[in-house]
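pls design
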C-alpha cells in the first residue's frame, strides 16, 4: 500500500483512500428517538430500504422483507445467545461485567469502581467470594471465585447504556432472537430481534455464530479511524452454512455481526468455508466486500465502528442521507428500534 494511505492489519481488503476521521461519522440524534423499550410485536418495526445502485430510499415495514428476498438469496443470521453477564456485589457497591469466562470460576471482567478491585481484593456475589488475581493493562480484572456463581439467579443482562435503565424480567426473552442457540454473547445481534418464527420459516436462511463482546460498548476515541483497535470476538461457521452460502446468488447478512463473520472467513480463506476462531476485523470506508451482497441492520450510534461499517457498504453520503431521512420520519433508533435494509 502506498505510503501515507491507511492500512489496518487483518482488516480485509482495502482500496486506497485518504485518512478518514471519526467525526465524519457523527450525526445529531434527538434523544426521544432512542428506543428504550421494545415494541410488543417483534415484526412491527419500520424498515428503511436503501437501494445502493439507484441511491433511492423508501419507507416500508419489516413485514415487507419477503418482497425483497429472491428464491436464490440466502439470509445469514447470528444465532448467538445473550447471557446475563452483569453482576452486582451483595452490598450493592460494586459491579462486575464478565467479559470472558476463562473457566467456570475464573473470569476476565470489567469492573466498577476500579479502586475497589485492586490486586488481592475480594468481592461477594450471591455468597460466592471472588478474588482479584490480575489487573490487566487495559483495566480488566481477572477474578477467581471460590465456587460457581449462580448466573440465572444473580446475573443481569448488560443492556446498552443508551437505554438508560436496568434490565427487566421481560428483557430475558425480548432481548434475545427467537433463534438464539449458542450461549456466549454479552449483547444481542439486534437486527435479528425483528424476526418471528413464522416469518423466518418462509425465507431461505442459514446461521453463523459470533459472540457479541465488550467491543460493542467501546467508543472510538481516536481521531483517525484506522488507529482504532477492535476487540476480538469468537465465531463459528458450519459446513452446512458454508455450502448454503456457496449456492446462493446473493448473501444477505442479518446484522453487522453476521457480516463481520462472513467477511472474516472470506478474507482468510478466499471464500466462506467451515471455520472457527476469533476476529477483530474492522470494516470502514475503503473496504472491499467479498461475501455479503445485502445487509439488514438496525440504526447505529454516532461515530461508532458500526456507522463506519454501513458507510463502507453503502457509501458515507448515502448512509448519512438515509439517517437524516430516518430522523425526519421519526424512526426508532438502536437496539430496540427500527431497521434498515441495504440492497
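designed seq:
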Amino acid at each position: 500500500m502506498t505510503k501515507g494511505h491507511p492500512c489496518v492489519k487483518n482488516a480485509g481488503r482495502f482500496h486506497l483512500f485518504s485518512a478518514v476521521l471519526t467525526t465524519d461519522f457523527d450525526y445529531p440524534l434527538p434523544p426521544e428517538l432512542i428506543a428504550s423499550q421494545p415494541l410488543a410485536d417483534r415484526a412491527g418495526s419500520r424498515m428503511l430500504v436503501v437501494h445502493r445502485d439507484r441511491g433511492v430510499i423508501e419507507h416500508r415495514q419489516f413485514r415487507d422483507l419477503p418482497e425483497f428476498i429472491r428464491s436464490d438469496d440466502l439470509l445469514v443470521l447470528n444465532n448467538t445467545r445473550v447471557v446475563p453477564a452483569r453482576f452486582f456485589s451483595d452490598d450493592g457497591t460494586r459491579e462486575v461485567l464478565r467479559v470472558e469466562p476463562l473457566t467456570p470460576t475464573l473470569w476476565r471482567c470489567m469492573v466498577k469502581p476500579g479502586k475497589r478491585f485492586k490486586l488481592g481484593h475480594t468481592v461477594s456475589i450471591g455468597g460466592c467470594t471472588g478474588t482479584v488475581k490480575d489487573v490487566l493493562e487495559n483495566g480488566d480484572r481477572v477474578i477467581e471465585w471460590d465456587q460457581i456463581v449462580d448466573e440465572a439467579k444473580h446475573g443481569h443482562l448488560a443492556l446498552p447504556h443508551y437505554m438508560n435503565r436496568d434490565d427487566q424480567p421481560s428483557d430475558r426473552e425480548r432481548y434475545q432472537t427467537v433463534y438464539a442457540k449458542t450461549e456466549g454473547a454479552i449483547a444481542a445481534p439486534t437486527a435479528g430481534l425483528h424476526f418471528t418464527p413464522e416469518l423466518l420459516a418462509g425465507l431461505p436462511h442459514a446461521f453463523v455464530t459470533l459472540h457479541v463482546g465488550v467491543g460493542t460498548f467501546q467508543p472510538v476515541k481516536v481521531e483517525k479511524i484506522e488507529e482504532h483497535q477492535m476487540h476480538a470476538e469468537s465465531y463459528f461457521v458450519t459446513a452446512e452454512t458454508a455450502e448454503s452460502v456457496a449456492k446462493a446468488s446473493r448473501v444477505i447478512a442479518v446484522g453487522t455481526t453476521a457480516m463481520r463473520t462472513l467477511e472474516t472467513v472470506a478474507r482468510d480463506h478466499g471464500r466462506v468455508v467451515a471455520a472457527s476462531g476469533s476476529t477483530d476485523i474492522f470494516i470502514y470506508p475503503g473496504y472491499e466486500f467479498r461475501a455479503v451482497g445485502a445487509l439488514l441492520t438496525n440504526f447505529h450510534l454516532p461515530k461508532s465502528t458500526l456507522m463506519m461499517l454501513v458507510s463502507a457498504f453503502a457509501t458515507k453520503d448515502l448512509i448519512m442521507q438515509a439517517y437524516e431521512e430516518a430522523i425526519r420520519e421519526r424512526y426508532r433508533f438502536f437496539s430496540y428500534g427500527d431497521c434498515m435494509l441495504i440492497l
